[in-house]
Write a structure and sequence with these properties.
alpha+beta, Immunoglobulin-like, five-stranded mixed sheet, about 65% helix, about 5% strand
Length: about 650
């Protein structure tokens, strides 16, 4: 039975007519006179810090004239334009739909379109993306669905404009935006270059040489997993570097030992952001300290942000327990839930990926197996990787020193340089140096011809393309969530039920929700830190909490932001680090998320109970961590089952 009553040739006229119809609709939907500015989205009933757009600000800045703002026939502001430009306006819209805001000053009139959105709508785009990804196992389609739903809401539910908005604004803004565009392009180039380096190294037998050498120590699956965990802990100074190097380097070894790609990606993911967030000399430290310092200065509090951050680390329950839980799982040889099924499949059948898996990257399928006749040498594999690590670390120092010198600093130490470094430049230097060294090794030893070297490099880059597309769409949906004020909606409603005593616990839950919904740990920290620290001082002062009690609430609240941010970013299928873990490990992304989620939820629940609830009730933090570790061991013992050949 035919689904359509015509053949392909008779369908041409219908396709042509459909194309013409789309063109007409597109033309009808196109903005007139080059006007391509969408309405400003605000949440109904929630205060929004409104400020006039740049071109209006420029015209109002000439003189200190009076200015009047009128919306829906009601004057909402009348006063000095200088005051408005400096302080903005807290705008609260109670009625849903689109509104015209008129700005009147000196006989001139400007207009802004304001679109008020029902609060629950802003949660739908990330939720749809997550649910679609888990149900249909098509990450690109799921992310596109989430992005389209977001643009549909932002364009006032216009079906054509919402589709066009994806490509003419969000894709472009994601890659070329003023705030984060350069950094994201750097991440893409770094990832592609690292893929190219791995391609050359694999083709000349270097990766096989690493496997052969490590195999002498990692003689079984348990030792192999421990090796991956140890490498993840050692490469602590940047989560992206950690993920890509550990995953790509150890994948041939874990495949040989019949360790599932799901298990590899879990270990890689759990020793990337968690370990980086806990160390002091990392690419995260400058960002974290700057947020804390900004909050202290806004309150007029004189205290060292670095010392505060270091003091808060014992309260960072989730990152600490996530790293420990991997070690417990590895040493016990036990697994449970979906991971147990994946590990049993790999050990018994030798299939490191499921039959229907679609690996995020597959170097073997792109012609980067060792070339015939090449001799696998350990030095050819480890030397390019060591160059990447050393050059990246050196780059952090050099860019940090340059920044400090440009700022007029006379004396500074290693920690200061790392804090002020440009990690993206350092990563680019490291990956490009690794490519050059790998190519020189292949050519100088006659292992590959120049043509074969370039082919291997290009094939390595090709293996990363699918993951890059997913990464870009994940950034797009993050931008959508920012424009929809998804995090603001969660903060506004959940902050109303926060009390000083249980503030860290509530902050942890809030950070979990924001980071899982938006897929970004840094975004979560940047949203919550300026809110939570003043909230700690304000609620504590109102409750009469001072001294050591205030210190405990402050430190644990700062740590709760970090813990919740790492948890949500660790679990979310739209998180860039989760995607990169799947990519570096050659795992199916949804399989990685599905098998990792029960483990992450276990650690998250224990962190919530021991790390924040019991400490709120007065239990010392170190005692709570010991109790949490014992509880995790008990979970593994009760629910875990031994894996054959583990």
């Amino acid at each position: 039975m035919k689904i359509f009553p015509w053949n392909i040739h008779s369908a041409y006229p219908a396709v042509l007519l459909g194309g013409i119809a789309i063109a007409v609709l597109t033309a009808a939907a196109a903005p007139v006179g080059g006007e391509n500015r969408q309405a400003i989205p605000v949440l109904r009933g929630i205060p929004y810090p409104f400020a006039p757009r740049e071109e209006i600000r420029e015209q109002l800045a000439g003189a200190d004239d009076s200015v009047t703002l009128v919306m829906d026939g009601i004057t909402i502001y009348s006063g000095s334009s200088a005051f408005l430009l400096k302080n903005g306006l807290e705008l609260k819209v109670e009625a849903a739909g689109e509104h015209i805001l008129r700005i009147l000053s000196g006989g001139r009139e400007f207009t802004e379109r304001i679109r008020s959105i029902h609060g629950f709508m802003v949660l739908l785009p990330p939720l749809v993306a997550i649910v679609f990804a888990l149900i249909f196992k098509q990450v690109l389609v799921a992310l596109l669905a989430g992005v389209w739903l977001g643009t549909l809401i932002l364009t006032g539910y216009h079906p054509v404009s919402s589709v066009l908005r994806i490509v003419d604004y969000y894709l472009i803004e994601t890659l070329a935006g003023k705030e984060e565009g350069t950094d994201r392009i750097s991440i893409i180039v770094f990832t592609l270059l690292l893929g190219g380096m791995v391609g050359i190294t694999s083709r000349m037998g270097g990766m096989q040489g690493i496997v052969n050498r490590i195999s002498r120590l990692a003689t079984n699956a348990r030792r192999g997993q421990f090796t991956v965990w140890l490498m993840g802990v050692i490469i602590f100074f940047d989560d992206y570097t950690n993920t890509l190097i550990v995953g790509n380097t150890t994948r041939p070894l874990t495949d040989k030992l019949k360790i599932s790609r799901e298990k590899l990606s879990y270990i890689v993911d759990s020793t990337a952001a968690p370990i980086t967030s806990l160390m002091v000399i990392t690419s995260w430290i400058g960002f974290q300290i700057s947020l804390i310092d900004q909050s202290f200065k806004s309150l007029g509090v004189d205290r060292n942000p670095l010392a505060t951050f270091v003091s808060s680390l014992p309260y960072s329950a989730y990152p600490i327990l996530a790293v420990l839980f991997v070690l417990f799982i590895v040493l016990s040889g036990r697994d449970y839930s979906y991971m147990l099924k994946a590990e049993r499949r790999a050990r018994i059948t030798g299939k490191v990926s499921g039959d229907d898996a679609a690996p995020m990257s597959n170097l073997d399928a792109n012609g980067t197996l060792p070339a015939p006749g090449t001799r696998p040498l350990f030095i050819n594999g480890i030397f390019p990787i060591a160059v990447v690590i050393c050059v990246t670390f050196l780059g952090l120092i050099l860019t940090g020193r340059e920044s400090l010198t440009a700022g007029g600093a006379d004396s500074f130490g290693l920690l200061d340089m790392i804090k002020e470094s440009n990690s993206f430049k350092a990563l680019l230097w490291g990956s490009f140096s690794g490519c050059l060294v790998a190519a020189l090794l292949a050519l100088s030893q006659g292992l590959l011809t120049l043509t074969a070297t370039m082919d291997a490099w290009v094939n390595g880059i090709k293996s990363m393309m699918s993951a890059i597309l997913i990464l870009i769409l994940a950034w797009c949906i993050g931008k959508i969530c920012t424009d929809l004020h998804t995090a603001d909606y969660l903060v506004y409603h959940l902050s109303e039920i926060i009390s000083p005593r249980f503030l860290p616990l509530m902050v942890f839950l809030l950070a979990m929700g924001i980071s899982f919904s938006t897929g970004t740990s840094w975004g979560t920290m940047s949203i919550l830190t300026p809110i939570v620290i003043p909230l700690v001082y304000g609620t504590s002062a109102a409750a009469g909490i001072t001294g050591s009690a205030l210190e405990t609430v402050l430190l644990s609240s700062i740590a709760a932001i970090l813990s919740g941010a790492v948890f949500g970013d660790h679990c979310s299928p739209i998180s860039d680090t989760t995607i990169m873990s799947s990519m570096a490990s050659g795992a199916d992304h949804i399989d990685h998320v599905k098998t990792q989620l029960p483990y992450a939820l276990t650690v998250g629940a224990v962190s919530l109970l021991c790390g924040y609830l019991l400490t709120a009730l007065g239990l010392p933090v170190f005692v709570s961590l010991i109790l949490a570790a014992l509880l995790l061991l008990a979970v593994i013992r009760i629910f875990g089952r031994m894996v054959p050949g583990g």
